[in-house]
Automatic annotation (TrEMBL):
Annotated organism of origin: Vespula germanica
UniProt lineage: Eukaryota, Metazoa, Ecdysozoa, Arthropoda, Hexapoda
Top-level taxonomic group: Eukaryota
Entry protein name: CHK kinase-like domain-containing protein
CHK kinase-like domain: residues covered: 133-330
One protein family per Pfam: EcKL
Coiled coil: none
Amino acid sequence: MSDVENKIKEHFKVLVPKLMSYLRDDYYKYEYELERPNDSIFFSGTFYMRIKFWINDNNDVKDKNKTNKNKEKIIIMRLVAKTPITTEAVQQLMKANDQFYNEIIFYRNYATEGDNIPKCYYTNENDLFGATLVLEDITTKGYKIHPKKVDIPLDDILPVMKEIARFHAKGYVMKEKHPEKFVGFIETIKECRYDANDNDPNSHYVYLLNHVTCRPINYLRKINYDNNFCDKLEECLKNAYRKILLKTIEPVEPLAVLCHGDLTINNMLFKRDEKDTRVMLIDFALIRYGSPAIDLSTFLCLSCSNQVKCENLPIVLRTYHDELTRCLKENGLTNLEKYSFEAFWNDYVEHALFGYTVCSYFLHTLMNEDLPPLPDILDKKMEDLANIVIESGGDKITIALANILIDLKELGCFNKILS
């Protein structure tokens, strides 16, 4: 058994007795099982937890050793437990402890009863080997991971747009009605990925982004696509971390809002019935304050690039905007001129390149292309790591990234950056 596995075993051995008091007080015996999800990406400290409670129907819990077998019943509870226990190298690269801190404060200080998110039963940033969150397992309510990672049908894209609109609307309402509380919460969020003070061109994320974003350039030249554009684009992408990413994440008022920050298909679950499709967002470790396009472009570029092109993007963004406006009105906001569709459209065009930067290093993972497990590649030199990502998926990924760039160019996303 590895050191990480030993830590996980000991962590839950100490955690579970404490957790029980948060769940029920009428049991006299319990058992639990842990199971890792099969579809974990990169590092994951997520476990399915199945707890079996033995309960006396007469509710005689004063003496838990005293049982009445005739009135005994068993209740099974299914939960999701999350902890950042992993290798030291992965923890440092992913800033795992900071990510868990963000999700904990999200549930403690921002989420409210009635939000369309998994119920949180337990949070603690100081358990045996670090932080722990225990949430309801919403798959027991019929929610499921989408069967596709890319090329999501439009009928499923639109419910996602409505759900992220409701998520953003809550932030706008709090920002206007309770500005001090909202700003106070935003100031507690830790930066887990994009450090504006990171001036080391060889640091993992800076080096990786400045190289993998250039992947489609040679292909675009090969198909004789606008040489002048390719030259300017290549020069820009060589410093993509500063020229694109840091600029697109900088909050611009009045549309800056609390973003999910990692709106990928893996972080949402779908529930279908005869009437409609409902979506629930999960995993709030990368929340951040910035343009709503951070969320919109991540999802649309990663999973919807073939379905959502320039010609039908207005339909998708209109669905988002209509639901956002409805929620703002429902919560008593009246001065909505600054939330016009034109304002959101322009904001998306200005910030949608964020979605491409995410695609450049993550699309191959969603498309199920082979990549060694994260712990296996952390010891490699940065140039070797970048080459592994660039080569992953071959021409299929390269062409997909090139098509995303072409579509963003036609949308006008490069007008300011390359002017």
